[in-house]
Write a structure and sequence with these properties.
The chain has helices at residues 14-27, 54-74, 79-94, 97-111, 115-123, 129-153, 156-171, 174-178, 187-191, 196-213, 220-245, 250-271. The longest helix has 26 residues, at 220-245. The chain has twelve helices and no strands. The model is unreliable at 1-10 (pLDDT under 50). It is globular, with a radius of gyration of 19 Å. The N and C termini lie far apart (58 Å). It has one domain (47-271). It is mostly helical.
């Protein structure tokens, strides 16, 4: 393994920066280059420690859609079009990673009669009726929530978008932490599970982002509701996955992120009255 120039002591945050780069590569289509001292940027990520930087990665990935949301609103495109463009950019940035998981889970859980059949359906690249409906509803709820937030809070909607992106990604760790891989030979089993310390750091950073959102116009009740409902949504998806397939997969984690993001946005929307 190649050592970084100058030694690791000269760069105490090297491991964190490398984990951030790995997060951005895994969760998005961004062309993140090899970082100084990084042994193998294309190696399979180690989820035992990588998710500790997931809140920071989520924040970075949410900033361009948030800026598009604000720009579209400022130039007079209207809340609906601005929100649609923001969600579209987010989907393009991540390569529809989480949306694909949601569709697969909806098809598998909705159409399979046994755990084995559900997993088989989830591996099928074709989309079925359950998956199509789930995608339409998820996109409609995200766009509608952001458009209504723009109407009610203006620039606060962009802050809500970023916070929902961060909290939902942290919440989506719940299946990985609480459930074993449903497929012993699958990707979820290969990347490992977050350690207790890694999970604690991810939750702590997510809460820090939530606290930092308060000075930007979001009410405390709304931020607290986002944290609570994102967590409850992730626990609900985790419980359903345990009942349906006895574990978790990458698709379950993607579905968990989508459901948690929607729950967080709706919680904020409920706290910001017209």
């Amino acid at each position: 393994m190649r050592e970084p120039l100058g030694g690791e002591a000269d760069w105490p945050g090297r491991a964190l920066v490398h984990d951030l780069g790995a997060c951005l590569r895994f969760y998005s289509r961004l062309p993140v280059p090899a970082l100084p001292g990084e042994p193998d940027p294309h190696a399979l990520p180690d989820f035992g420690r990588l998710p500790r930087m997931l809140p920071v990665a989520g924040l970075i990935l949410a900033l361009p859609p948030a800026l598009v949301l604000l720009a579209g609103w400022r130039i007079g495109l209207g809340p609906f079009v601005a929100a649609t463009l923001a969600v579209a950019l987010g989907v393009l940035t991540t390569g529809a990673l989480h949306e694909d998981g949601l569709a697969d889970v909806a098809d598998g859980f909705g159409g399979g009669a046994s755990p084995e059949r559900r997993l088989e359906i989830m591996r099928d690249s074709r989309i079925g009726a359950y998956g199509g409906v789930a995608l339409v509803l998820a996109l409609a709820l995200r766009i509608g929530a952001l458009a209504t937030l723009l109407d009610r809070t203006g620039a606060g909607a962009a802050v809500g978008l970023v916070l929902a992106a961060v909290l939902s990604r942290v919440a989506a760790l719940a299946p990985m932490v609480m459930l074993p891989p449903a497929r012993p030979g699958g990707l979820s089993a290969a990347v490992g599970r977050p350690s207790r310390a890694t999970t604690g750091v991810a939750i702590g950073l997510g809460l820090v982002v939530a606290i930092l959102a308060l000075p930007f116009g979001l009410p405390f009740s709304g931020v607290a509701g986002m944290v609570l409902l994102a967590a409850l949504a992730s626990l609900a998806v985790t419980r359903i996955a345990r009942e349906k397939i006895g574990g978790q997969t990458g698709d379950v984690i993607g579905a968990c992120q989508q459901v948690s993001e929607i729950a967080a946005l709706l919680a904020l929307l409920a706290a910001v009255r017209a």
